[in-house]
């Protein structure tokens, strides 16, 4: 699975023309691989989110923009990779892939190929994230919370909590 992850990322992000080519016509896309199908569906979801009106169904108190406290999974990455919120904020992770992930805080070592070679979960957050579902965590203490997906060795992100 490691090679799939790498090819996937470089195919989609390596060329500035690639996304443009993919976006206009979904019928012409005809992905032949599972990764291609995932990419196509993730792109479609990303576009729908980006272009749609806010239609958030969350309870929310209206004090913050929904996007400001939401991390999506897309194309086997957390987006945004770094999210800054104020202490007391509840961050929502939304799985917009068709595959399962985890949100796991801890430290890790990344090899020269960009994939983690070791992981040390710290137990602060360790939540499975299923396709189409959300998980949330409320950050009460300021600090930098580095997290990763324990399933995909190239997926990580951080939440920076300010006072
Ligand atoms: Cu993952």
From TrEMBL:
Alphabetically ordered keywords of this record: Copper, Metal-binding
Domain Blue (type 1) copper: 69-161
Entry keyword Metal-binding: yes
Pfam families: Copper-bind (PF00127)
Gene3D superfamilies reported in the protein's UniProt record: Cupredoxins - blue copper proteins
GO molecular function, one term: copper ion binding
InterPro entries on file: BlueCu_1, Cupredoxin, ET_Amicyanin
SUPFAM superfamilies linked: Cupredoxins
Superkingdom classification of source: Bacteria
Listed transmembrane segments: none
Name this polypeptide is given: Blue (type 1) copper domain-containing protein
